[in-house]
Amino acid sequence: MSPDARTSLPSTRSLARKGATTNGGMMNSATQVHPTAVGTVPGTSALARVSSRSMFGKTLHDNRRVFTVWALATGLLAMAYASFYPQLSAEPAASVPEAMRGFGLDDTASAAGYLQGAVFGLLVPLLATFYGAATGARMISSDEESGYLDLLLAHPIGRARLVLHRFAALAVGAVVIAAAVLVAVLAVRGSAHLDSISVANFAAQAVNLALLAVFFGALATAVGAATGKSRATVFGVTAGLGVLGYVLNGFAPQLGAEWSRHLTPFHHYLGGEPLRYGFEPTGPLVLAAATAVLLGAGILRFARRDLGR
Fold first, then answer.
1. Model pTM greater than 0.85?
2. Which residues cross the membrane (predicted)?
3. Exposure on the CB side of residue 97, measured as CA atoms within 13 A
4. Of 111, 116, 87, which Cα lies nearest the Cα of 101?
5. For residues 125 and 102, what is the distance between their CA atoms, to the nearest angstrom?
6. Are residues 29 and 57 in the same domain?
7. Are residues 192 and 265 in the same domain?
8. Parent domain of 26
């Protein structure tokens, strides 16, 4: 072959370089045209993050403002009522209506008697009941009602784990509320002449308060998980049972049915009179055992039923 012919033909090395350049350009173009090939399905990134981290932590984070509001409201209410003791302690017990004595208002002269009736026997336990009912209704029923629960369980989050993690967050909220009440009454302990009650006895009462809120939280969570009813229905049923138990515990002695008080959680919450005698294990153990039974029954049913039914 002549020298001119050799120079007019492209060399093998130059062809290889052009081919590599052409192929690389095609690959780069393909990558640029189809960027979603290495991405995620839109709308699932949040759920993926949920499945990769603790459901307990996420529930706490999502409800932090709710827990704070409940704690502040209950604590301030307890502080306000406790502050009235110096004025109301002068009222004789005979001036208390007979119908109200079953609620612990039969001894307003002593600090323990006044607090047991006016603070820890009236509005504070009702607020704890409503906290448990409202928060428990949100744990499962709210997400099932909105359809979010189906998307959540499509990820590797077991049903039992979901319930337990969310209920644990509810229990933390109950402890925060009880701690807020404890701090509130201790803050006015000196000025309200409540020094006759030890800090340990106040703490024992706060433990019982937390367990009462946890009990009704377990009831609401179990009803929602087991039945699939709406959030409003679950709250209504739980709160209604709570008010019924509260009234029964208060009026049972006047109806000649003292025995029926033992069927209510309020008797085990307040019956041991922790403000007078300190921590008494029977009541807290009954509340804890009942909570475990309710939660276990709800999880068993939730694991077997079809969602949305």
1. no
2. 66-85, 114-134, 167-190, 202-225, 232-252, 285-303
3. 5
4. 116
5. 15
6. no
7. yes
8. 1-38
